[in-house]
Design brief:
The chain is mainly beta. 0% of the residues lie in helices and 46% in strands. The protein has strands spanning 3-7, 10-13, 18-25, 34-39, 46-51, 58-60, 68-73, 78-83, 92-98, 117-118, 122-127. A hairpin with a 6-residue loop joins strand 4 (34-39) and strand 5.
Length: 128
């Protein structure tokens, strides 16, 4: 059974940092695009970042570019999201997702429907 489990969320003051992890089990994702999304209360889920097979290609939403960094460790079957300069508007539940096939998603990485596996999310709260 494939599982994605996020961790690392919590409460942080504005301007602070957090590092989220997403550990995959049940299969390897070394040749799969993986991404991070978030959903704030009352809002739609939005894409944040994605990473290609070997981590050389990364993609970011404008809202987090320059503040967030996605990375992966294929040996650990894990991806990360380093979040710096956090703002109250970053408060949300953060989800990781993975594509089941070895597809190139460089032009569609932001589309939720491209991802087949999802974690349950981890809460990030940024206080002002």
């Amino acid at each position: 059974q494939v599982q994605l489990v996020e961790s690392g969320g919590g409460l942080v003051q504005a301007g602070g940092s957090l590092r989220l992890s997403c550990a995959a089990s049940g299969r390897t994702f070394s040749r799969n695009y993986m991404g991070w999304f978030r959903q704030a209360p009352g809002k739609e889920r939005e894409s944040l970042a994605a990473i290609g097979w070997f981590g050389t290609n990364t993609y970011y939403a404008d809202s987090v570019k320059g503040r967030f960094t996605i990375s992966r460790d294929n040996a650990k079957n894990t991806i990360y999201l380093q979040m710096n300069s956090l703002k109250p508007e970053d408060t949300a539940v953060y989800f990781c997702a993975a594509d089941a096939g070895s597809r190139m998603l460089e032009s569609t990485w932001y589309r939720q429907q491209e991802y087949d596996y999802w974690g349950r999310g981890t809460q990030v709260t940024v206080s002002s």
